[in-house]
Each structure stands twice: as C-alpha cells, then as structure tokens.
Specification:
mainly alpha, Cytochrome Bc1 Complex, Chain D, domain 2, globular
Length: 118
Amino acid sequence: MKQLTFAAAVAAISLTGFAAPALALDVEAAKGLAEQNNCMQCHGLRKDKDGPAFLTTADKYRGKANAVDEVVKHMTSGKKVKLADGTQEEHKIAKTMPPNDAKQLKNLAEYILSIQPK
C-alpha cells in the first residue's frame, strides 16, 4: 500500500508541473575546466582573441532553447573554426575527468552562456 501511495504522490507532483530545481552553476569548476583545456588561450571573457569572447558566444545564443547543447557540441565536435587572422584549424575538444563527463561539459557551457557585459 505504501508503494501505491508513493506512486500516487509522484504522479500528483508530475501533474502539478512541479519540477526539481536545476543544479546551480558551479563557476569555480567551470573556470577550472576552462583552464585545464586552455580555453582562455583563444577566448577572452569579454574580448575576442583568436576565437570569439565568451560574451560573444553568450550573446549569439542568449534566449535560444538549445543554447547549452549547441555550446557543448562546439566544445566536443572538433569542427573546423575560422580564427581572427582568417586561418582555420580544428577546435580543440574539451577533455574532462572522467572522460566525456556530460555534467562538467554542461556546467562549462552554462558558465560561458552566463557571461554578461560589465
């Protein structure tokens, strides 16, 4: 009977639209992952370098439903990118420990998308 009560409670919560809160952005972990992967060598926070600033990326995807997924895809696909000097190279693939940790990659993407102008 307790299992039925628990199931009923879960169903009631689902029907009310109540959702568990999203995990909070871990800024320090995101900065650490960016540092590990030398992201800041090519990207500034608010100033373009060889690659676009994180702010430029945030502005490009701000308000789009698939923003986090798009940034994660960019960090993990190794696709060719055009540098400021016009040359092209394969974007480095972000590495996590353990490998391909979706939570860490999503956190870094959310950090990038959270950058605001000063």
